[in-house]
User: What shape does this take?
Amino acid sequence: MRKILIAILSLIVVGGGVSYIVLSNNDSNETESPPQEEENILKLNNELDGVYAFSKTTNNTLVANIKDKDDVTIIDDASKVLGFDYQYDKLYVYDDREIYSIDLTLGNGKYEKEVLYEATTDSENESILYFYNNKIYYVDDYKSIVCLDLETSSTTTITNSTRINGMAINKENGKLYYAINALDMAFVLYEYDFNKDETSEIFRGSDDDGYYGINLLSLNDNKLIYQVGKDYEFKSYIYDITTKETREYESSSGGEIFLDDKIYLVKSNNDYTNSGDSIISVDSNNKEETLYGPVSYYLTLQYLGNNTFHFSEIRGQDITAEIIYYNLDIESSEVKEMDYGYSIIKVINDNDLTEPEEINNSKETDITLDDLVGEYEGTRTSDSNYSIGEIFGTSLRYGNSLIINDDNTYSLNVGVAYSEDGKYEIDGNKLKLYDIDNKSDNSRPTEDELLIDVIDDKVTLKHREDIDDNNYVYVIFEK
Assistant: This one.
């Protein structure tokens, strides 16, 4: 029998206390401070003291990158994770089945997810995800940008296109940027202002004028780097969000990163006297400086945060290819070989430290008492990987009913797991259960709750069931 703990409102802290850390600027220099000295203090687990980024590794784990420490594993199996973002004290994760959050203040070494939305996709492509203003924006299979409103659990498609080639949100100024390759062979970079609900174009090129592609590469320090292909050549540009000025760079690789008024990239030299890849920096005067190389291997470059670049060398070809991963300290030029690489990196910055407004979970609903009253039975769960039969086993033959009476009483009988009566009250989109009289398990809490939802125009009730220490699903009761 799987472990079943129904205590939705109880938050159990495991493994000791929490540490108080303050993260600031793109380098994320952390200083430990007593709570009374800072207003914007994040109470993360003490094993996360010094965190400056989160990354998905080539070993298919999701880890916290800690200054001067080994990485801390947050998700053991992140093979299905497509994208994620950090805001205040939570990670928001998008995988091929659902969108969920992970509270980083609870329990060192034991991180649990809270499912926010069931979102299925056939794609295995890594995606882009941002949390902003209690909404989650993500790219679905390169073809559309979707907005999930966490307060209403509803989704809106921002745009559809043949290909979404990059998306970024500037949380400080409340603006969304995205690049598309459109059906009419137009290549456009857009800016959408959340506050004004206005969309404007930063760049537009067409196939008729010799353009053949656009990519949004990165956004930091209010600078947007994008790359445009024209006449069989790609060029990179920096767009200043504040001044609206655009600057062209002569060097280009497709992996540009902007830091401290310099652009960093991999440059390939293929002339007769010198061949190979180099990691270089280019200043505002187009002056180049080599940081690593040249080497006769294929290099890729990412910014890991903490003044560190992460790059890989691909040696050999086809079945003989070997990938070796390194970290490069920008200040000291020290190169360190790594045991694994990172495929997605989220660097924490100032805008990620803003506490989001609290979602009103007691919002008004149109569901009346007459809508709720009746007999329900458990039909399925919120996760197709766990059927209701797997959770309750053959004990379902002993009973499967949830009865909501019109006198604010209820009864729940599901196998040998639940045999109880009690009272309830409607609280927004929740049914609060109290004065629970349990007839089968003395450890059952005296208070609980059911989530009220409407699926396919039918009122449904959802009850949380813990699968194990790290996973849970909702059992769905239908009339």
In short: Residues 388-392 form the longest helix (5 residues). The helical segments are 369-372, 388-392.
